[in-house]
Fold this protein.
Amino acid sequence: MEAGDRIERHFGFAPIPGSHPPLPTCLFGLLQLDGIYMNLETQRLFMRPIRAWDAGALHRLQCDPLVVESTMQGIPPTREMSDARLSIYLHEWETYGIGVWMIYEREDSGDLRFVGRSGVSRFGNDIQFGCALFGARSGQKIGPESLKPVLEFAFATQPVERLVALIRQTNTRSLRMTTVLGFSRLEPVVFNGTEYQFYEMRRPPQ
Protein backbone atom coordinates (compact mmCIF):
# COMPACT_ATOMS: atom_id res chain seq x y z
CA MET A 1 0.00 0.00 0.00
CA GLU A 2 1.13 3.55 -0.63
CA ALA A 3 1.81 5.81 2.33
CA GLY A 4 -1.54 7.54 1.78
CA ASP A 5 -3.63 4.40 1.38
CA ARG A 6 -6.54 3.93 3.76
CA ILE A 7 -7.08 0.55 5.34
CA GLU A 8 -9.86 -1.06 7.32
CA ARG A 9 -9.79 -1.16 11.08
CA HIS A 10 -9.82 -4.95 11.35
CA PHE A 11 -6.75 -7.09 10.72
CA GLY A 12 -6.52 -10.88 10.87
CA PHE A 13 -3.48 -12.63 12.33
CA ALA A 14 -2.67 -16.33 12.37
CA PRO A 15 -1.88 -17.30 15.98
CA ILE A 16 1.40 -18.97 16.87
CA PRO A 17 1.10 -22.01 19.17
CA GLY A 18 2.16 -21.52 22.74
CA SER A 19 1.01 -19.61 25.78
CA HIS A 20 1.63 -15.95 26.40
CA PRO A 21 2.58 -14.57 29.84
CA PRO A 22 0.07 -12.38 31.66
CA LEU A 23 0.44 -8.71 30.80
CA PRO A 24 -0.04 -5.69 33.05
CA THR A 25 -2.37 -2.91 32.05
CA CYS A 26 -0.52 -0.80 29.49
CA LEU A 27 0.05 2.75 30.69
CA PHE A 28 0.48 4.17 27.21
CA GLY A 29 -1.65 2.08 24.86
CA LEU A 30 -4.31 -0.60 24.65
CA LEU A 31 -2.84 -4.10 24.26
CA GLN A 32 -5.00 -6.54 22.32
CA LEU A 33 -4.03 -10.21 22.47
CA ASP A 34 -4.43 -12.11 19.20
CA GLY A 35 -2.63 -15.43 19.62
CA ILE A 36 0.90 -14.32 20.36
CA TYR A 37 0.61 -11.23 18.19
CA MET A 38 -0.32 -7.99 19.88
CA ASN A 39 -1.94 -4.90 18.45
CA LEU A 40 -1.01 -1.66 20.20
CA GLU A 41 -3.05 1.53 20.31
CA THR A 42 -2.66 5.09 21.50
CA GLN A 43 -5.11 7.96 21.22
CA ARG A 44 -4.20 8.63 17.59
CA LEU A 45 -2.25 5.53 16.50
CA PHE A 46 -3.10 1.93 15.65
CA MET A 47 -0.17 -0.48 15.41
CA ARG A 48 -0.16 -4.09 14.24
CA PRO A 49 2.66 -6.64 13.93
CA ILE A 50 4.32 -6.62 10.52
CA ARG A 51 3.34 -9.49 8.21
CA ALA A 52 4.63 -11.02 4.98
CA TRP A 53 2.15 -9.08 2.84
CA ASP A 54 3.69 -5.79 4.04
CA ALA A 55 6.74 -6.25 1.78
CA GLY A 56 5.77 -3.49 -0.67
CA ALA A 57 4.79 -1.01 2.03
CA LEU A 58 7.99 -1.66 3.98
CA HIS A 59 10.12 -1.14 0.88
CA ARG A 60 8.45 2.20 0.13
CA LEU A 61 9.09 3.28 3.70
CA GLN A 62 12.73 2.18 3.54
CA CYS A 63 13.14 4.23 0.34
CA ASP A 64 11.69 7.41 1.84
CA PRO A 65 14.36 10.14 1.57
CA LEU A 66 14.36 10.90 5.30
CA VAL A 67 14.64 7.22 6.23
CA VAL A 68 17.47 6.73 3.74
CA GLU A 69 19.32 9.77 5.07
CA SER A 70 18.83 8.90 8.74
CA THR A 71 19.44 5.16 8.79
CA MET A 72 21.19 4.05 5.58
CA GLN A 73 23.90 6.65 5.04
CA GLY A 74 22.07 8.08 2.06
CA ILE A 75 22.04 4.86 0.02
CA PRO A 76 18.51 3.67 -0.90
CA PRO A 77 17.96 -0.06 -0.40
CA THR A 78 17.12 -2.48 -3.18
CA ARG A 79 13.89 -4.46 -2.97
CA GLU A 80 15.97 -7.51 -2.08
CA MET A 81 17.50 -5.65 0.87
CA SER A 82 14.07 -4.59 2.13
CA ASP A 83 12.75 -8.15 1.74
CA ALA A 84 15.73 -9.46 3.72
CA ARG A 85 14.92 -6.98 6.50
CA LEU A 86 11.30 -8.13 6.45
CA SER A 87 12.42 -11.76 6.81
CA ILE A 88 14.36 -10.80 9.94
CA TYR A 89 11.32 -9.01 11.38
CA LEU A 90 9.07 -12.01 10.73
CA HIS A 91 11.63 -14.40 12.22
CA GLU A 92 11.81 -12.38 15.42
CA TRP A 93 8.05 -12.38 15.84
CA GLU A 94 7.93 -16.14 15.30
CA THR A 95 10.91 -16.84 17.56
CA TYR A 96 10.59 -14.30 20.38
CA GLY A 97 6.98 -13.09 20.22
CA ILE A 98 8.06 -9.52 19.67
CA GLY A 99 9.31 -7.38 16.81
CA VAL A 100 8.21 -4.55 14.53
CA TRP A 101 4.77 -2.97 14.26
CA MET A 102 3.33 -1.10 11.27
CA ILE A 103 2.07 2.32 12.42
CA TYR A 104 -1.23 3.78 11.24
CA GLU A 105 -2.44 7.25 12.15
CA ARG A 106 -6.13 7.82 12.75
CA GLU A 107 -7.73 10.47 10.56
CA ASP A 108 -10.74 12.60 11.44
CA SER A 109 -12.85 10.43 9.12
CA GLY A 110 -11.97 7.34 11.16
CA ASP A 111 -9.74 5.91 8.43
CA LEU A 112 -6.18 4.80 9.11
CA ARG A 113 -3.14 6.01 7.19
CA PHE A 114 0.15 4.08 7.11
CA VAL A 115 2.91 6.36 8.41
CA GLY A 116 5.85 4.15 9.45
CA ARG A 117 7.17 1.33 11.59
CA SER A 118 8.13 1.03 15.24
CA GLY A 119 9.46 -1.84 17.27
CA VAL A 120 12.33 -3.75 18.81
CA SER A 121 14.86 -6.37 17.73
CA ARG A 122 17.39 -8.65 19.38
CA PHE A 123 20.91 -7.24 19.78
CA GLY A 124 23.08 -9.86 21.44
CA ASN A 125 21.72 -10.34 24.94
CA ASP A 126 19.88 -7.02 24.74
CA ILE A 127 16.86 -5.72 22.87
CA GLN A 128 17.15 -2.52 20.87
CA PHE A 129 14.36 -0.29 19.65
CA GLY A 130 13.91 1.38 16.30
CA CYS A 131 11.43 3.66 14.57
CA ALA A 132 11.14 4.98 11.01
CA LEU A 133 8.51 7.39 9.68
CA PHE A 134 7.76 8.86 6.30
CA GLY A 135 9.32 12.30 6.11
CA ALA A 136 5.90 13.90 5.67
CA ARG A 137 4.95 12.75 9.20
CA SER A 138 8.25 13.56 10.89
CA GLY A 139 8.14 16.17 13.63
CA GLN A 140 4.60 15.25 14.74
CA LYS A 141 5.77 13.30 17.84
CA ILE A 142 4.53 10.05 16.32
CA GLY A 143 7.88 8.36 17.06
CA PRO A 144 7.82 8.65 20.85
CA GLU A 145 4.06 8.07 20.97
CA SER A 146 4.46 4.78 19.09
CA LEU A 147 7.48 3.64 21.07
CA LYS A 148 6.11 4.10 24.59
CA PRO A 149 3.73 1.10 24.38
CA VAL A 150 6.37 -0.88 22.48
CA LEU A 151 8.90 -0.40 25.30
CA GLU A 152 6.36 -1.32 27.94
CA PHE A 153 5.38 -4.42 25.97
CA ALA A 154 9.04 -5.43 25.69
CA PHE A 155 9.62 -5.21 29.43
CA ALA A 156 6.34 -7.06 30.09
CA THR A 157 7.12 -10.01 27.84
CA GLN A 158 10.92 -10.33 27.54
CA PRO A 159 13.38 -11.53 30.22
CA VAL A 160 15.79 -8.60 29.86
CA GLU A 161 17.01 -6.05 32.36
CA ARG A 162 17.44 -3.23 29.87
CA LEU A 163 16.52 -1.95 26.43
CA VAL A 164 19.15 -0.27 24.29
CA ALA A 165 19.47 2.04 21.30
CA LEU A 166 22.30 2.57 18.82
CA ILE A 167 21.93 5.85 16.93
CA ARG A 168 24.22 7.52 14.42
CA GLN A 169 25.61 10.83 15.66
CA THR A 170 24.13 12.57 12.61
CA ASN A 171 20.60 11.34 13.33
CA THR A 172 19.67 14.29 15.50
CA ARG A 173 15.92 13.55 15.47
CA SER A 174 16.39 10.10 16.98
CA LEU A 175 18.96 11.38 19.47
CA ARG A 176 16.43 13.88 20.79
CA MET A 177 13.63 11.31 20.84
CA THR A 178 15.71 8.82 22.81
CA THR A 179 16.29 11.41 25.52
CA VAL A 180 12.56 12.26 25.61
CA LEU A 181 11.76 8.57 26.10
CA GLY A 182 13.96 8.44 29.19
CA PHE A 183 17.00 6.55 27.93
CA SER A 184 20.38 7.17 29.55
CA ARG A 185 23.31 8.09 27.34
CA LEU A 186 26.39 5.85 27.62
CA GLU A 187 29.70 5.77 25.76
CA PRO A 188 29.74 5.68 21.94
CA VAL A 189 30.31 2.27 20.35
CA VAL A 190 31.55 1.11 16.96
CA PHE A 191 29.43 -1.53 15.23
CA ASN A 192 30.16 -2.85 11.73
CA GLY A 193 32.63 -0.03 11.20
CA THR A 194 30.16 2.75 12.10
CA GLU A 195 30.20 4.79 15.31
CA TYR A 196 26.91 5.00 17.19
CA GLN A 197 25.79 6.76 20.33
CA PHE A 198 24.74 4.08 22.81
CA TYR A 199 21.71 4.46 25.11
CA GLU A 200 20.02 2.20 27.64
CA MET A 201 16.81 2.07 29.65
CA ARG A 202 16.84 -0.15 32.74
CA ARG A 203 13.84 -2.24 33.71
CA PRO A 204 11.57 -0.18 35.98
CA PRO A 205 11.50 -1.35 39.62
CA GLN A 206 8.55 -3.56 40.50
